Amino acid sequence: MRIGRALAGGLVNVGIALTALRTNLMRSILTALGVMIGVLAVVLAVAVGSGAQISVENTISQLGSNMALVFPQPDTQNGGPTRDVGKLTERDARAIERSVPGVTAVAPQLRSTLQLSIPARRVSTGGIAVTEGYATVTNTEVESGRLIADTDVQSAARVIVLGQTVAGKLFGDLDPVAQDVRVNKVPFRVIGVLAAKGSSLGNDNDDLALVPLSTGRQRFATTLPGADDLNMLFVGFDPAVELGVAKQDLVRLLRARYNVGKGDVQPFTVATTEEFQAQSATVTGVFQAVLVAIASISLLVGGIGIMNIMLVSVTERTREIGLRMALGARRRDIRNQFLVEAAVLCMIGGLLGLILAMIAAHVFERVADFPAPIGLPVAVGSILFSALVGLAFGGYPAIRASRLSPIEALRSE
Amino acid sequence: MATEPPLLETRDLEKDYVVGGETVRAVAGVSLTIRRGEFVAIMGASGSGKSTFMNMIGALDLPTSGQLLLDGNDLAHLSTDELAAIRNQKIGFVFQQFNLLARTSAVDNVATPLIYAGVGAAERRERAARKLAAMGLGERMDHTPAKLSGGQQQRVAIARALVTEPLMLLADEPTGALDTATSEEIMRLFEQLNDQGITVVLVTHEPDIAQYAARRILFRDGRVVEDAPVTDRRRAA
């Protein structure tokens, strides 16, 4: 009953507010513009922030969903001297595949920049020397031809699989499969083209080329000291495996293999996709918060505009306030009337800001190829938040209006 | 039937204002009674205290001292919300400048007091329309004040004053902004309303207008100097 009356009273006030806002149409529009720009900025900041989050998550899932990465870098996380040399070998990879539970495949890798050329063209790209396990661990597929197989690795075949970007740069629309290409001046045969993975966070995931691990070891200019040293090792796990546990198993095995004692620095670093996700969520969360905080300043300015105009409005309409009090309006009726007016003004600005933000986000996605999603909660939230801005900044003028003495208000000209 | 209290009773009513560090006694001890159904004209020059007195009996302003009983309620002891309710339920104001809300239709103007009485939208409109029709403005309900003549605007204002069925109409120079013919028309309307039993308290400085009332109270220097029946009363009908 009380709620029903409050709602009905609110509706009456919306009507009064719209009439008042129409009376000073130009002023209302300009004031709403301030809020519109503020909401536009905040909504865009939220959208870009979530876009960054999505982008980072995509990058991580491009790596492969349930996987650990091992680098031959001394893990200085627990302190200790950093001059220790890192170590990671193909034998480690085989040991992990054999004895860590839940491993689906391992992908030992060597990495180097490669110069690829055909008679007419020349490009440089990131080369990865891999075994058959690479495709399994990283969910990599070919668009045409085939992937690197274990037989290629055994025979150290001079074969290469091109990423979409590299294939396009060298061969244009032609199918590169079975074409020859020189890799660091040595002739190779193209055996496949990878399916496109797109780009994430400005990184082109298709700018790479794969060769057999053994071939890479012969041809890459590596500075690794050992005969079977690796630059990197991916370990794929069954989706049912708990990555935290898997990481512990992995670390225990490698520590045993390198005789790492308690308190010693281990010569390798293990990270999981789960950890990357958690880290990036923190980073993008901070990024988003900073963006929103900066954007909020413009909303604050819009809110101050609301307060300014509402103070003017209260002063101009002192006589109306006096009349309403004479007709029986209580202080809270007057207060609510002006609060609703400020909230309505802000919500109109907020709605316009939201619409503009949606258009801007759409254009941004098209032009910059960067996701900037505006979900329903953000849309609804921005309108409610606009109303809140109205209530906050309209509060002081509204209370001032409600405190007027009826007789003095009626006498004012 | 239990004896009803007088509509209005004041005893030693005083009102002081502080202007520029000096205290001005605008109303200096007024004791009088107005009964239900009376038609009273309050007269006096400007500065005589009649407006201050009217504001107090209209629950718009509180006395500095003395008693002010409206329908048995001592206004000096009511909260601002209770005073608002008194203005809403028991008093109908009519102003010199009509004080209608611009860009608001006649019917919505008349319905405004009902908003503060907590009446639902449909009933508000229906009751406002009925009062407007009684004022002979049934055809102009959706006109805004700008499209109405002065006399029509004042009739809308009277309909607004009556819409909550108050005990008393309190009219402050209601004909001050109107020409002679329209003034007479409005005064006839007050006369008819009084004949129907509505108490009318009229504040004016024009003797002609005061002649429509049955009782004349004259203020000077914050005091009542004359309170007598109107002997040369004008009756329109």
Secondary structure topology:
The complex is a heterodimer of chains A (413) and B (237).
Chain A: H1 2-23, H2 25-63, E1 67-71, H3 90-99, E2 103-117, E3 122-130, H4 133-138, E4 142-145, H5 150-155, E5 159-162, H6 164-171, E6 180-183, E7 186-194, E8 199-200, E9 203-204, E10 208-212, H7 213-219, E11 232-237, H8 243-257, E12 269-272, H9 273-316, H10 318-326, H11 331-368, H12 376-402, H13 406-411
Parallel strand pairs in A: 3-10, 5-7
Antiparallel strand pairs in A: 1-11, 1-12, 2-3, 2-6, 2-11, 4-7, 5-10, 6-7, 8-9
Helix pairs in contact in A: 1-11, 2-9, 2-11, 2-12, 3-8, 9-11, 9-12, 11-12
Chain B: E1 8-19, E2 22-34, E3 39-43, H1 50-57, E4 65-70, E5 73-74, H2 80-90, E6 91-94, H3 106-116, H4 121-134, H5 150-162, E7 168-172, H6 180-195, E8 199-204, H7 207-210, E9 215-220, E10 223-229
CATH class of the domain at 8-100 and 166-229 in chain B: Alpha Beta
Give the N-to-C terminal Cα separation of chain A.
Answer: 39 Å
Extended strand count of chain A = 12
Oligomer: heterodimer
What is the name of the CATH architecture of the domain at 8-100 and 166-229 in chain B? 3-Layer(aba) Sandwich
Computed over alpha carbons, the radius of gyration of chain A is 32 Å
How far apart are the termini of chain B?
33 Å
Low-confidence stretches of chain A: none
Find the biggest chain interface: A-B, 25 and 28 residues
Q: Mind describing the biggest β-sheet of chain A?
A: 6 strands, mixed, barrel
Spell the H/E element sequence of chain A.
HHEHEEHEHEHEEEEEHEHEHHHHH
Number of helices of chain A: 13
Helix content of chain A: 55-70%
What's the tally of helices of chain B? Answer: 7
Low-pLDDT segments of chain B:
none
What is the chain-wise order of helices and strands of chain B? EEEHEEHEHHHEHEHEE
